[in-house]
Amino acid sequence: MSRILELSASELVSKIRTQEITAEEYVNKCYERIKEVEDRIHAFITLTENIALEKAQEIDSRIRKNEKVGSLSGVAVAIKDNICINDVRTTCASKMLENFISPYNATVIERLKSQDAILIGKTNMDEFAMGTSTEHSQFGPTHNPLDLDRVPGGSSGGSAASVAALETTISLGSDTGGSVRCPASFCGIVGMKPTYGLISRYGLIAYANSLEQISPIARNVADLVLLTECIAGQDNKDSTSIDSGTQNLKNCLVDDVSGVKIGVPEELFGIGTDEVVSKAVWEAISKLEGLGATFSKIKLESLEYALASYYIIAMSEASSNLARYDGLRYGLRLDDENYDWSTAYSRNRDVGFGAEVKRRIMLGTFALSAGYYNEYYLKAQRVRTLIKQELSKAFKDFDLIIGPTMPILPFRLGEKLLDPLEMYMCDVDTVIANLAGIPAISVPCSSSQGLPIGVQMMAPALREDVLIKVAFSLEQHLKPDLELKV
Amino acid sequence: MVETTELKVKIGLEVHCQLTNLKSKLFCSCSSDYRQSPPNTHVCPVCMGTPGSLPVLNRKAVEDAILIALALNMQISNKTIFYRKNYFYPDMPKNFQISQYDRAGGIPIAKNGSKKLDGEKIVHISRLQIEEDPGKISYEGTIETSKSAFVDYNRAGIALVEIVTDPDINSPKEARIFLQKIRSIMEHLGVSSGELEGSMRCDANISIQGGTRVEVKNISSFKEVERALNFEITRQKSLLRTGHRIGQETRHWDEARRVTISLRVKEEEEDYRYFPEADLVPLTISEEEIERQKNSMPELPEGHMQRLMTQYDISRQNAMTLIDNKALAEFFEESADNYSHPDLLGNWIVGDLLSYLYEMDIELKDAKLMPRDLVKMLELIDDGTISGKIGKELLKEMLITGKSPDEIINQKEMRRISDREYLNQLTEEIFSSHPQAVKDAIKDPKAVRFLVGQLMKKTSGKADPQLANSIVNEKLKTSKT
Fold it and tell me: Is the ipTM of this complex over 0.85?
């Protein structure tokens, strides 16, 4: 394995700009690595080698001519396979979209390209981002690079595993209820779900559109900032996108947490939280206290209902967002001669969707149905409002809220596959930030028997700067003992 | 047996008007001028519902809707939310339609308006909402026999307003008049051109005293609405008369066969699973914006009618008919400004021109008639070049060919014959071939009419009638002696 692959994104940019290494050489090393480990990791669904090499050569040539290059010049970015790249297959890890070639670029892709990032490939995920383990991919599961028998988390498992396994330097995932923070935590790296609206969703294939955000994944906080700053900002193609305001995340990369006020809700350490996880998170809190931060235990009672609220809203939205996959314009199309359209739709959807997707579509359809709407969807929205209110009240006293990212350690492949509810329970701590639309980050803080433990921090909307500052400090002072198994 | 003749009919309409003045579709930048384009060429990732695409509201549609709401005396909501109406149907690229909703926390852009019909009749309008048009499905033959359906998404995403009335309408004719009024308002506001094919459509809810509500979909114009409703009312009445019950159902108006066909009965009614569209932010409309639109409000049909009456001194009835079709009213005004007898002109337009257009089943814009040619034609009648009767023929010819009246008159030799010598000669011939009629006419002045008629016939009606009359009478006098 080449040392180049271990370089941070900012180191790479400077080495490529000064022609110490070429982008082409580095990209070739990435693909060598991918070819070396993919049969064990399976982080990618599609490799975009031609596009990547062509872009690398173009960057090298521009650098040789002393032309200006972008902030991510030459850095390989893996893209979750629910983000559209023009002329590239975008499958959502579903049979439904197995042959869907996107006719356009997502806004984040345009921005990455304009900053000369290199699109290395499309990563594996739970089908339509519905899952916590990347086992629900119709192309087979991804394995955790720190323990090949265990899941990498999900749904952005491929994006996290590829970064952890040094197949790429940084990646994009999407986070609807923890789908970036969970795999970042399980793979021992950094993932952040930004404030809702900070990053354009144009070109992100929707699962639950009021909850999700395209989210950056990196091996360190500085790389995460570099990637975030490249893709964030208002976009005319997404009405819900917002101006990032005056945040300057790069300036937050200083090891100083003095005066930071931390709230620790006991609800984040509820039943089902592994003791080793609790212990590791409390150690991280103590570390921050030692560095000058203060903390208080608090109670946020509405959080008890977060998971139920999340799943009802997410499934309801999913039932509508995924309606377009009927085989007529999009999706798998079986032979439909002699079938009326309604039967043809049913057949296509029956074969095209996997079991978990069908489960969520059916539950979501139920929750929106006449006679159940008030009981389920509307009630879930009310809980969501309560959670938002309770959190914003808490943020009057605290700069951030800390708890575990995942209540448990990475589990074994197949361990929870037959019990959907147990799988859903894993999202109990992450869904809160999606419901509230606030930013949340997961940073590795410890390990247990070689398995990583992540600490999660949440801040008020558009206060990513606070998250970055504290995450950067934790990164300087906590170095979990982790070892790649590939 | 139920006595059905006196049963009261209640009709509520859901009128869909495309906002044809908008340059682009409701949620994307595709041009809204789709009618001449080959199928599925007027589309983009947004209006095709391509995975990952997002809608962005065309704010101009909101400005249009505010104007419409003001014209219909409605209350405009300061904050409204778009909803998704979920249903599987091939004309919906996303299998949901972005619309507005008045239940479950939804707020349409405007509520509680009314429109007065001619006379005292008032139709209450319960809501106005903005939504996207679906694509268009066509069939080979009929909906029932076609082997496949063809979908064209060029229309998908075109901005629509839906105007929903209370069940205040009591006859098919009232429904037609209401639609005409709506069309006229849209045209006066400049937001929708009713002349464009399919730009104004409606669904109707009909119930007959003693029956339940039946919805008839797919009514494509106000000409069709009267036919569809008449059919449906007759159908329901004959069911009631024969002792059947009318159940709640949705029916489809088959324009070609002029019948309604059952689409689904109550048990199969769709549950649209409305819920808020999170891809669009709530729409806020400020008092300033409403005020701005109020100030830019163009002349409305009522005002237009009053102006026609005072400015041109035409009858109320004519003015009312003219403003029902803004293009016709404008045609009138342009002609009247160049003609000395606007009242006569009004009669010609409202009478002959309108009935020809109706007969030919075309819109004024499709007819090849220029105001200056109509004026010229009237002047030819005034100066005696042609008779009024020939004028009617001439007008028809002008509509079809688009030629000037002079050109047609010369070509078809329509000019009035006032050549005394020529008419004398023809009268000579008539007298010798109808000796008995001449004898009769000498005795009975009433029988003169036959001989004059013969003369008119020989000249294909072009003989100056007064001259023809005097020539025949003179000739009779000389025959007596």
Answer: yes
